[in-house]
């Protein structure tokens, strides 16, 4: 640190610092203005998204009541229904960058604190910390379970149960924050963690005795198995998620879970038998506790834990089993990405126009008619010009689509068919001329 020799140098340094402070004041003023502008833009976007969804709801209801009179109306109805679905996905993508309200659980725990993380880098960092937290605590729980299998000390049992309660409480809070910031966490797996928190709390209050000692060894073996299984799931799911995110098939804020999702179908199906073994272990825990509830000296914790383990078994089994029909459904379901809206603007009236042009030119080439009426020639020329302009737009949108990751296979086939129709139309017109 520089030491000033006399008062003159101190005054000079203070003068320079004052000038820097004025610059700081002006920068801070601009910062406050930009914050106000940002808040206004966020409110405007949220309001417009609500308006869009309200109008989309009206259009969707109207489309369900429509009865097409011919094939042309049926095609237009189908195209409009697809565009409505695309718009919903686009609105979801836009909404990911906007602040959201905290849920009831977060409001109870944290109050009205804003937990939105608008910076994407900070959001991903928080998600990575969540994954590391799960991994580290899972390994600690594994070590404690092994120690409890080797020894029979009440203090280690209580430490393990307290760790379980604290772990799942923290997990539910972090998952709620991640959900506010765009993570797609399914309802059952969040509820699963809440129930596991209750299980840990009931276990913590279960007094030592004959029923407890009769179940203790089985409980520790169960936690050893679950900890090893969760470690395997974390390792394989993390690699699978990384690959799918790179391909654009998964959201960047998706997280690893204790169960099985449809995106794990390729590459992680070998985990399914191990998952069902774990669920069977939960069912056996419930049965063993049910039998212990009739033993002399049984407390209320035993039937309560039996019911909770049965709930976990049923919820996990049903949710994981539903992945199979969901996967079959996903094979015929379109996947939409956030692409410029103008790409889909040609799909209604202009698609109808190109259909008429193609049919007229094909009819002319088949019948061998070399001369058309002036009205027909004028109509074909106008429609050909229109489809040619659409073709130019299509090429520019295709280049942009390659930059942002491309569209779906169905959209690619549709665009390819449309390009072929335009080429056939131009060839037929040249023959007619």
UniProtKB/TrEMBL annotation:
<feature type="compositionally biased region" description="Basic and acidic residues">
    <location>
        <begin position="388"/>
        <end position="397"/>
    </location>
</feature>
<keyword id="KW-0472">Membrane</keyword>
<keyword id="KW-0812">Transmembrane</keyword>
<feature type="transmembrane region" description="Helical">
    <location>
        <begin position="263"/>
        <end position="282"/>
    </location>
</feature>
<feature type="transmembrane region" description="Helical">
    <location>
        <begin position="158"/>
        <end position="177"/>
    </location>
</feature>
<feature type="transmembrane region" description="Helical">
    <location>
        <begin position="135"/>
        <end position="152"/>
    </location>
</feature>
<feature type="region of interest" description="Disordered">
    <location>
        <begin position="384"/>
        <end position="433"/>
    </location>
</feature>
<dbReference type="InterPro" id="IPR012926">
    <property type="entry name" value="TMEM120A/B"/>
</dbReference>
<feature type="compositionally biased region" description="Acidic residues">
    <location>
        <begin position="398"/>
        <end position="412"/>
    </location>
</feature>
<feature type="transmembrane region" description="Helical">
    <location>
        <begin position="302"/>
        <end position="324"/>
    </location>
</feature>
<protein>
    <recommendedName>
        <fullName>Transmembrane protein 120 homolog</fullName>
    </recommendedName>
</protein>
<comment type="similarity">
    <text>Belongs to the TMEM120 family.</text>
</comment>
<keyword id="KW-1133">Transmembrane helix</keyword>
<feature type="compositionally biased region" description="Basic and acidic residues">
    <location>
        <begin position="413"/>
        <end position="433"/>
    </location>
</feature>
<dbReference type="Pfam" id="PF07851">
    <property type="entry name" value="TMEM120A-B"/>
</dbReference>
<dbReference type="GO" id="GO:0016020">
    <property type="term" value="C:membrane"/>
</dbReference>
């Amino acid at each position: 640190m520089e030491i000033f020799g006399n008062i003159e140098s101190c005054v000079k340094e203070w003068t320079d610092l004052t000038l820097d402070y004025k610059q700081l004041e002006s920068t801070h003023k601009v910062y406050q203005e930009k914050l106000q502008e940002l808040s206004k833009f966020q409110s405007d976007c949220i309001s417009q998204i609500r308006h869009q969804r309200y109008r989309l709801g009206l259009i969707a209801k109207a489309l369900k009541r429509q009865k097409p009179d011919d094939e042309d109306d049926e095609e237009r109805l189908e195209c409009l229904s697809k565009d409505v679905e695309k718009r919903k996905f686009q609105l979801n993508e836009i909404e990911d960058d906007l602040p959201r309200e905290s849920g009831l659980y977060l409001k109870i725990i944290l109050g009205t604190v804003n937990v939105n993380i608008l910076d994407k880098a900070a959001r991903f960092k928080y998600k990575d910390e969540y994954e590391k937290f799960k991994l580290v605590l899972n390994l600690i729980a594994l070590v404690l379970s092994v120690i409890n299998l080797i020894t029979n000390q009440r203090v280690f049992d209580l430490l393990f149960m307290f760790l379980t309660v604290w772990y799942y409480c923290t997990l539910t809070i972090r998952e709620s924050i991640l959900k506010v910031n765009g993570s797609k966490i399914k309802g059952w797996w969040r509820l699963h963690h809440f129930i596991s928190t209750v299980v840990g709390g009931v276990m913590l209050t279960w007094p030592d005795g004959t029923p407890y000692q009769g179940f203790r060894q089985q409980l520790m073996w169960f936690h050893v198995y679950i900890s090893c299984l969760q470690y395997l799931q974390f390792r394989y799911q993390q690699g699978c998620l990384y690959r799918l995110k790179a391909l654009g098939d998964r959201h960047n804020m998706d997280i690893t879970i204790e169960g099985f999702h449809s995106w794990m179908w390729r590459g992680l199906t070998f985990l399914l038998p191990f998952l069902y073994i774990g669920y069977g272990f939960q069912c056996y825990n419930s049965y063993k506790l049910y039998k212990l509830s009739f033993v002399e000296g049984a407390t209320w914790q035993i039937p309560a834990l039996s019911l909770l383990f049965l709930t976990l078994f049923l919820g996990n089994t049903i949710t994981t089993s539903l992945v199979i029909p969901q996967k079959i459904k996903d094979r015929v379901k379109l996947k939409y990405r956030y692409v410029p809206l103008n790409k889909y603007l040609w799909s209604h009236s202009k698609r109808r126009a190109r259909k008429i042009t193609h049919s007229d030119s094909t009819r002319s080439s088949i019948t061998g008619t070399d001369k058309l009426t002036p009205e027909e020639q004028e109509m074909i020329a106008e429609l050909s010009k229109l489809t040619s302009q659409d073709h130019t737009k299509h090429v520019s949108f295709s280049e942009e689509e390659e930059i942002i990751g491309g569209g779906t296979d169905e959209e690619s086939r549709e665009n390819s068919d449309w390009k072929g129709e335009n080429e056939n139309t131009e060839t037929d017109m040249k023959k007619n001329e």
